[in-house]
Specification:
Layout lengths: L1 H99 L1
């Protein structure tokens, strides 16, 4: 009878241990799912940051291109102004020479 009781207690303890193990297994699976979701969020955030960086790089290139174009246009305006001033001076000299003769 004592042996039967001990056997029953051992069986009850084993069932309780099995139930605890199943709960732990379930909790571990839930934690694993949460970790996967967090990894996916981190991956998405990295992709977004990469896209933002790429956009910022493009913006920098665009600004540098616009700046170069503005500098080039300013040089062309200065050259055109200098040419116009030289032509006007030549025309004045020619007019002065024509008046003198």
């Amino acid at each position: 009878e004592e042996e039967a009781e001990a056997e029953e207690e051992a069986e009850t303890a084993a069932e309780a241990a099995l139930a605890v193990a199943k709960v732990a297994q379930s909790e571990a699976r839930a934690a694993q799912a949460e970790a996967r979701a967090a990894m996916e969020e981190a991956r998405a955030a990295m992709e977004k940051a990469t896209a933002t960086l790429s956009g910022a790089d493009s913006a920098v290139v665009g600004v540098e291109t616009a700046r170069a174009a503005a500098l080039s246009a300013a040089k062309e305006r200065r050259a055109a102004t200098a040419t116009a001033m030289a032509k006007a001076a030549a025309a004045r000299m020619a007019a002065d020479a024509a008046r003198r003769s």
